[in-house]
């Protein structure tokens, strides 16, 4: 008996390097890929608990770097989306979940017909990257205010540019986090799960995210930026992802 296709999918794109034409290491030696495994498990568990048949899978890269104009991870993401369309059909809703370089690839690949939204964690958002492909998509970017690898200011700018280009966009700041998402790891996992399932309609978007996604294109960048601890109703003090809200900067 043929297996029933999933009702939706989440494609996960891990981080990498600015340059590097060699393939990523295998298995646990691929640290950026390993870093995303807890997110894969958390989203898949939430989907199962909601009774939804959502495919959650990581995209495999041919090369570990972005490599300038080659934009290798972008092409890997598109190839994965094309394969998913061939397998599950034209109507399958997909959310792309990416970290750092993977978030850059997810944003670039968001123009694919299957993509409904993007959740980018600590995204790499160079000022010249295009945003027109984000029109009609939901885009939520999450960044620590203490990230020293990628720029939260650049993320806020891209969020505003995407909104002007026709996207429904929002930025969430994680105070006291870091680029590797180790500090406040439980909060990163809980927030990401709520965003991904919310964008797929498998759950509710947390706090004011839905309100901010509905802002007009003329909204200021600061209007489209939320604070994890102040603006999102994630029950941070209870449940399996127990975290303590950070006070101050």
Task: Please write the string of helix (H) and strand (E) elements.
Answer: EHHEHEHEEHEHHEH
**Quaternary state of the chains:** single chain
Q: Quick one: overall form?
A: globular
| Helix count from the secondary structure assignment | 8
Alpha-beta content class: alpha/beta
**SS elements, strand count:** 7
Instruction: Detail the poorly predicted runs.
Output: 237-249
Main sheet makeup: 7 strands, parallel
Mean pLDDT: 91
**Distance separating the two termini:** 56 Å
Radius of gyration: 17 Å
Characterise the protein shown here.
With 249 residues, the protein is α/β, with parallel strands linked by helices. It is built from eight helices and seven strands, in the order βααβαβαββαβααβα. The chain has helices at residues 31-35, 37-49, 72-88, 101-109, 152-164, 185-199, 209-213, 228-231, and strands at 8-13, 54-58, 94-99, 115-121, 138-144, 168-174, 225-227. It has a seven-stranded parallel sheet, sandwiched between helices. Helix 2 (37-49) crosses helix 6 (185-199) and helix 3 (72-88) crosses helix 4 (101-109). The model is unreliable at 237-249 (pLDDT under 50).
Question: What is this structure, in a nutshell?
Answer:
The chain has 249 residues and is α/β, with parallel strands linked by helices.
Based on the model shown, name its key terms.
7 strands; 249 residues; globular; alpha/beta; 8 helices; 33% helix; single chain; seven-stranded parallel beta sheet
């Amino acid at each position: 008996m043929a297996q029933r296709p999933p009702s939706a999918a989440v494609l996960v794109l891990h981080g990498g390097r600015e340059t590097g034409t060699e393939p990523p290491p295998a298995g646990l030696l691929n640290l950026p890929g390993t870093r995303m495994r807890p997110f894969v498990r958390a989203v898949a568990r939430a989907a199962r608990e909601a009774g939804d048949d959502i495919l959650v899978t990581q995209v495999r890269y041919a090369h570990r770097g972005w490599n300038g104009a080659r934009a290798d991870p972008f092409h890997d993401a598109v190839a994965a989306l094309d394969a998913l369309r061939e397998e599950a059909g034209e109507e399958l809703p997909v959310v792309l979940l990416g970290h750092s370089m993977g978030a850059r690839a997810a944003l670039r690949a968001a123009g694919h017909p299957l993509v409904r939204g993007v959740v980018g964690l600590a995204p790499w958002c160079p000022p010249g990257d295009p945003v027109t492909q984000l029109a009609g998509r939901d885009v939520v970017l999450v960044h620590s205010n203490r990230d020293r690898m990628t720029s939260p200011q650049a993320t806020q700018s891209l969020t505003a540019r995407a909104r002007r280009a026709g996207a429904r966009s929002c930025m969430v700041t994680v105070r006291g986090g870091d680029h590797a998402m180790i500090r406040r790891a439980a909060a990163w996992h809980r927030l990401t799960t709520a965003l991904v399932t919310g964008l797929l309609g498998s759950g509710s978007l947390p706090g004011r995210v839905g309100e901010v996604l509905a802002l007009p294109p003329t909204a200021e960048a600061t209007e489209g930026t939320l604070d994890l601890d102040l603006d999102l109703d994630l029950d941070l003090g209870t449940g399996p992802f127990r975290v303590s809200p950070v006070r101050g900067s």
